[in-house]
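Lecture 7 notes: from sequence to structure.
We start with the chain below.
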Amino acid sequence: MNLKVNIAGVELKNPVMSASGTFGSGHEYSELTDINRLGAVVTKGVAFEPWEGNPTPRVTEVYGGMLNAIGLQNPGVDVFIERDIPFLRKFDTRIIVNVCGHTVEEYCKVVERLNGQDVDAYEINLSCPNVKQGALAFGQDPKVLEETTAAIKKVAAKPIIIKLSPNVTSIRDMALAAEAGGADAISLINTLIGMKIDIERRRFVLANKTGGFSGPAIKPVALRMVYEAAHAVKLPVIGMGGIACAEDAIEFLLAGASAVAVGTMNFADPRTMEHVAEGIEAYLKRHGLEDVRELIGAADA
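Predicted structure tokens for the same chain:
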């Protein structure tokens, strides 16, 4: 039975990976789950310089998931290269580095710094605030997204996966913009924007007021967007958003995703990704299928 999938020339042993920001670089999870059983580890966002992130409180539970306003806190690319790449290379899995920045130049500097390193691909987080566009995220304007993708692609020595924000009018237009800019693949969805208020204190729960909403409650929205994006472009699609079990992951594959990423549920059960991979294999056996690729986009067959 074949569980392997290919994302822009990078072969994964199975289609299951971590969603950026929910797995760190695996250090915290390595004693709780078998990283060798994952198709890939997608790291927490890596910037050129250290980012402090947002003030606390910056995480809260909500119905069906959680809100986070971490602010992409990270120690910067040099620490990532020295500390995290050697750790991840101990495992038989692919390394996809999530890249963040405030300007196109910052994204490019991170990618150029990583080009000579032993990593497999870059996931470009275009939900970062674009300081030259009045803090509007790079991923909310098709023209800016296309131009940013093209600039990064020009300097990247590894495949680039453009991570799309759901906080847009048309996910189809954003997927097409990524493709036009030269993306090798796309991933979606990033978090929705949400809010929570403490009615007793009459104050916002998060210091940032708003945060990224993730978890099982967003799955129907994510699934619809993955379907629309996958049918708009010819690129491989990595689907994510609310995946809690193998059944959820299989829905994304049937909608057109070539691989899936598990995020929020890693906090509830660090072995969720293992269970998802096992469940996909069990589903194939139960239905007499020999290759996981037979599921991709099969809902339209």
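Points to note: The chain has eight helices and 16 strands. The CA atoms of residues 2 and 291 lie 5 Å apart.
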